[in-house]
Design brief:
Chain lengths: ~325, ~400, ~450
């Protein structure tokens, strides 16, 4: 029983990441009709926002400690972060400790800005183009973005640890032990998903965007500047992907190709959920996350060898064959 | 010629001449010059050009004509390679049975996957093919290791049966051949400072590519090709006229799968090793990029796209700082270092970056891919003849 | 029918000409001209450095490349000579190899066997490389080794840890300096016994591909021999990024040791996840729960950050070793690049020097002569103590380091501390050991 609950928790965790990325992808597809292959890269950039903040906070003064030597036998240079110098050792190291939550604040404006620039500078020109062209240009952009990150931060993963307080394990009801940060991540994801839905549902802005998703031309004819709203939506989708990335850092150390690892999966998630359906994307994200977790159990892999390798794709095939438009998809979208 | 109209004959002839003369064309720089780095006229890369050309031509039959975007085509290439290597292991080192088997197996594989995937269209079809290919890759890498030799890739060994060839006595692995003509045979020709390599393997591949290209032209111009285009432009209307589009699309899918199988078989014939990465989604994505980069739905585009991508992968990735310093050593030290620093991120380990930038530039400014670029340049030259000097500036700007 | 002025006869004629062109090569093959593939004729000799420059192992590849550049500099008489001064063989004089200046070409393996072979082929066919070296995974090493055997050049393996490279896939033209899964296990087992006792239950997570399997097999055999019980072995997909669903079942499995047969990004993530789940602070069966990572790499350990503290593993070499060879190498590498070399850099540097030295001693670049000079070669002063290049399988036998994640690192490079140097005799196995059986070297191939 414990094992099952653990795997459900694991699934919800993985699902959170899938759902957040898929949500952004669907927002972009639903509003702008663009297939964004650079969305994984946005997730990755989000994670590297945390790396950047961490690097900035740990910018250090070097003082030579003559009692110790470095690997070449020269006197060792000891680094002390500036923040520790300025705010005292305790408060300074606390700031560094909390660098991931702090970088959430940094990430939002950065990602929104990147979203705006991407949409106005590049994607805008591809609204009327074929999906194939959109795929090529966004894929090219994804490569460029990840190579730029690689040029700055190298190819190896870089740890962005969770704050000390949130990095242990929590004992849940029933004596189940689970990492605190993973619970935080799930709650954070739920919050963002809820926020996006509330925004679309209860604000005038959201209403217009939903109307635009349904029938762009008519909304335009009503004299509403739908383009500007779509730009804002793109920024929002980028921010959602970025936030998913920042908070993911402590779970798995960010590396420059993590975006590509998630890209294919998140497309599968979007399609299984149904193109253009926001609730579908979220539901499919959690569903596939949980199924993937269960397929990884020893019981599953001994029953069907290799099932953990293929489960997501297998489920995608079955769902697409039995429910032609995905779980919650509407008729006529991208067929 | 061969039932083609004048324009197509000219195109076929041009392709044939270019592929036959490729060893000269691809080695424009003298061997000792600094620019020899850009020479692509060595057997392995020339073989890759034409083999991936075949792959892309086949992909274009499906994507260019029917508009169905398959994201799992690499699976057929991989299956073809595995079948070919198994033929080398079990039957004979002659490439003919290997290639025949790889085309057949890839065709069957495509039939099964196509039959299921073509029940859906649009992005749902893309995801279905992607899912099948990723499953093939994941299983080939792990569970199916007895058949595929997993991570290492399937390769020949000394104790393979090779029924037709008899036991090897030399203690070294046999090489692939076409009725005794070894694929790795090559002859070097030195003309002054230039050196050109003619490889048997390359010419075998080239002949296959010309045949594949010819077949593609025939398919493009046939009633069948017309039908496929009709499906692309409006599938519903096709259905309303009482025609069932499914058999046509399935046929196109299987044909393009067989092209991929042929490419896979040839890859294995040139170098008898089949790795699982050949089936990964990135490999499927690569052929999509080749086709779009070259020009979707055009005959020659996919071949150009394939050439460009393979050129980057093999030539740009080999330019290191040492080479850069060699090129610019004539400049004063400071300027030399400066220029090397500027170029450094785009070559060697940065070849991905350059490729990504090229994707973006091509698709933004040349919506029809490289073919459109060629047409524009041709148009400019034609325009220049008529209007004279005014357009000369434009031509330069385009370059 | 035909709308062009091309006649059927004309086509036939050109076909015949083309046919003749294809037939030509059999007459004029290069075989008569040279004694072996890419025989260097001018004043230079070209080596091919084939390392991952893109993909997850790009940093490791970059470090290998630094080591190669350093080796070339030393061979050509530049720099401080590095390990050439401590190397027991004194054949190298700092004037290149056999008087020829050493030049090199580089390529990108992308850590894919296909791409690696393409890159190696271009070095052999286009650039005339006489030796190929490098790589950061066993799949690539085996694939490129096979290619070099066919092409008739020497392959000096870079970082490859699978038993197969010098086991079932060994080749006469291929040589490996790096250690392997069996050696890791043989070196680790006694240390684990001292640290954690003989009554332990081990749970293995294994990367689901050839290298993972051979290492898991080796570790399980060695630990079972000293009394440990293997509770479970779970295979994880290579593409896995989140290992939580593999780690969670460990909690209630009754196991008190977790063995992570992962490398690179897999290792960083599975270790991070294991620590997240509190495994390091856990008590099972009245003992502290322990995690073992059989193959450690400092570059990757850095990616794992705090999580590696106190975790035991093995490594081929570490910069903190205090023998003369290691000190000389760390000094020249550190002076040139500003940080200490990794084990990948070390093995690549040593391989290059060993190759050059073998050429000098053989008096030829002929792969067969070089191979003969390397076979059974005993040397010292290269950082691993007295070492033997065994003739039976072209594997180096040398001391293996057992290391532990350092609790209080003094710098960002000071992540591992050497727990024990296991002597070569303890990790040596018979050439026909079952884990290495199934292949044969074949005969050396000088090519053309």
């Amino acid at each position: 029983m414990d094992a099952i609950i653990l795997q459900i928790l694991n699934g919800l965790d993985k699902g959170s990441a899938y759902a957040l990325i898929a949500l952004g992808l669907t927002l972009i597809f639903g509003t702008l009709g663009v297939v964004n292959f650079a969305h994984g890269a946005l997730f990755m950039i989000g994670a590297f926002c945390a790396v950047f903040v961490q690097r900035v906070l740990t910018l250090s003064v070097e003082t030579v400690d003559p009692t110790k030597t470095d690997f070449l036998g020269n006197p060792l240079k000891v680094k002390t972060p500036y923040v520790e110098n300025w705010f005292g050792h305790d408060f300074g190291s606390a700031i560094i400790d909390w660098s991931v939550p702090l970088s959430v604040l940094f990430c939002i404006p950065v990602m929104v800005l990147i979203g705006f620039v991407m949409e106005r500078g590049l994607i805008k020109h591809f609204y009327k183009r074929e999906h194939a062209d959109q795929i090529l240009v966004t894929f090219g952009l994804a490569i460029v973005l990840q190579e730029v990150i690689k040029a700055f931060y190298g190819a190896n993963p870089i740890q962005t640890p969770a704050p000390e307080m949130l990095s242990g394990v929590a004992t849940l009801a029933g004596g189940i032990v689970y990492p605190v940060w993973r619970i935080v991540y799930f709650c954070f994801a739920a919050l963002i998903i809820g926020g996006v839905f509330a925004f679309l549902q209860f604000t005038t802005f959201g209403m217009v965007v939903r109307a635009g998703m349904a029938d762009r031309e008519t909304v335009g004819l009503l004299g509403i500047n739908i383009d500007r709203r779509f730009t804002i939506m793109f920024g929002m989708a980028a921010a959602v992907a970025g936030l998913a990335g920042v908070m993911y850092g402590p779970i798995n150390a960010p590396n420059y190709h993590m975006g590509m690892d998630f890209l294919v999966l998140s497309f599968v998630v979007v399609v299984v959920g149904g193109m253009g359906s926001l609730p579908g994307a979220v539901a499919a994200g959690f569903l596939l996350g949980i199924l993937e977790s269960f397929a990884s159990t020893t019981w599953a892999t001994t029953t069907i060898p290799g099932i953990n390798q293929i489960i997501i794709y297998l489920v995608a095939i079955i769902i697409l064959l039995t429910r032609p438009r995905g779980l919650l998809g509407k008729k006529g979208v991208m067929e | 010629m061969f039932g083609l109209n004048k324009k197509d004959s000219a195109l076929l002839l041009a392709v044939a001449v270019l592929t036959m003369l490729a060893p000269f064309i691809l080695n424009p720089f003298p061997t000792d010059s600094g620019l020899a780095q850009f020479n692509a006229g060595y057997p392995d890369l020339m073989q890759r050009f034409v083999i991936f050309g075949i792959f892309a031509i086949g992909f274009n039959i499906l994507f260019g004509l029917t508009g169905y975007l398959s994201f799992g085509h690499a699976a057929f290439l991989g299956v073809g390679s595995y079948s070919a290597v198994w033929m080398f292991k079990l039957l004979s080192m002659n490439i003919i049975p290997a290639i025949i088997l790889s085309v057949i197996i890839a065709g069957l594989f495509a039939l099964v996957i196509g039959y299921v995937s073509l029940r859906r269209s649009g992005i749902y079809f893309s995801i279905l093919t992607l899912a099948f290919a990723q499953m093939s890759f994941a299983l080939a890498y792990s569970v199916l290791t007895p058949i595929t030799n997993g991570e290492t890739g399937l390769q020949l060994s000394l104790d393979d049966p090779r029924i037709l060839d008899g036991a090897s006595t030399t203690g070294s692995l046999p090489v692939t051949s076409l009725f005794g003509l070894e694929m790795r045979e090559a002859v070097d020709m030195a003309v002054g400072p230039w050196s050109f390599t003619f490889s048997v393997g390359y010419y075998v591949c080239a002949v296959f590519m010309i045949l594949a290209f010819y077949l593609a032209i025939r398919i493009f111009r046939s009633p069948f090709g017309m039908m496929l285009r009709a499906i692309k432009s409006n599938q519903q209307r096709v259905s309303y006229t009482g025609l069932n589009p499914r058999p046509y699309t399935l046929a196109a899918f299987v044909i393009s799968g067989m092209y991929a199988g042929l490419a896979g078989g040839l890859l294995a014939s040139m170098d008898p090793l089949a790795g699982a990465e050949r089936m990964q989604w990135t490999a499927s994505g690569e052929v999509v990029l080749m086709t779009i980069l070259g020009g979707v739905g055009t005959l020659i585009g996919p071949v150009l796209g394939a050439g460009l991508i393979k050129y980057f992968e093999n030539i740009f990735s080999k330019i290191n700082d040492n080479v850069l310093h060699g090129w610019f050593s004539f400049l004063p030290d400071g300027i030399e270092d400066f220029i090397v620093t500027i170029i450094h991120p785009f070559v060697g380990k940065g070849w991905h970056l350059t490729l990504g930038i090229i994707f973006m530039l091509v698709v933004t400014f040349l919506p029809g891919g490289l073919v459109e670029g060629g047409q524009r340049i041709a148009r400019m030259f034609r325009g220049k003849k008529k209007t004279g000097g005014a357009d000369a500036a434009k031509t330069e700007a385009a370059e | 029918m035909s709308k062009t002025n091309l006649t059927r006869r004309g086509v036939l004629k050109s076909g015949a000409v083309a046919g003749a062109g294809v037939a030509l090569p059999t007459i004029f093959t290069a075989s008569s001209a040279a004694a072996y593939t890419n025989e260097p004729t001018g004043g230079t000799v070209t080596l091919g450095f084939n390392v991952p420059q893109t993909g997850p192992y790009a940093d490791e590849g970059a470090d290998e490349l630094r080591a190669y550049e350093l080796a070339v500099e030393h061979l050509n008489g530049g720099g401080d000579g590095g390990m050439m001064n401590t190397f027991s063989s004194k054949a190298l004089k700092g004037n290149g190899i056999l008087g020829k200046k050493v030049e090199y070409v580089t390529g990108d393996t992308q850590t894919k066997s296909d791409a690696a072979r393409a890159s190696a082929k271009s070095m052999i066919e286009k650039d005339g490389a006489i030796m190929i070296t490098g790589g950061s995974s066993s799949g690539v090493a085996v694939a490129v080794q096979g290619l070099c055997q066919e092409a008739g050049v020497i392959f000096m393996a870079g970082l490859t840890h699978s038993n197969d490279t010098t086991g079932k896939d060994k080749k006469a033209n291929g040589f490996r300096h790096f250690f392997n899964g069996y050696m890791s296990a043989a070196a680790l087992a006694p240390v684990l016994k001292n640290l954690y006792g003989t009554d332990r239950k081990a749970y293995h997570l294994t990367a689901d591909y050839t290298w993972g399997w051979t290492q898991q097999e080796s570790i399980a055999a060695a630990t079972e021999a000293m009394g440990w019980e293997t509770v479970n072995n779970v295979l994880t997909p290579l593409a896995a990024t989140d290992f939580s669903s593999y780690i969670a079942p460990v909690l209630n499995s009754g196991a008190d040791v977790l063995v992570l047969n992962h490398y690179g990004g897999n290792m960083v993530n599975s270790l991070t996840n294991a620590v997240q789940f509190g495994l390091r602070n856990k008590q099972v069966n009245g003992k502290n729960f322990e995690i073992v990572v059989p193959l450690f790499s400092r570059l990757m350990a850095r990616g794992a950050g705090e999580n590696i503290k106190g975790i035991v593993g093995s490594t081929n070499w570490h910069w903190s070793l205090q023998d003369e060879g290691s000190k000389a190498f760390v000094k020249s590498f550190g002076t040139k690049y500003g940080f200490p070399p990794s084990q990948a850099a070390h093995t690549c540097y040593v391989q290059t020097l060993l190759y050059a030295d073998a050429c000098e001693r053989a008096g030829s670049f002929n792969p067969c002569a070089v191979g003969e000079a390397l076979e059974g070669f005993e040397f010292d002063g290269m950082g691993n103590g007295p070492t033997l290049y065994r003739a039976d399988d072209h594997q180096c036998f040398k001391d293996v380091l057992v290391v532990k994640g350092k609790e209080n690192p003094t710098s960002e490079f000071d992540l591992l501390e050497v727990v024990e140097v296991t002597p070569a005799a303890q990790v040596t196995y018979a050439p026909d050991h079952p884990m290495f059986a199934g292949g044969s070297l074949g005969t050396c191939n000088p090519g053309a």
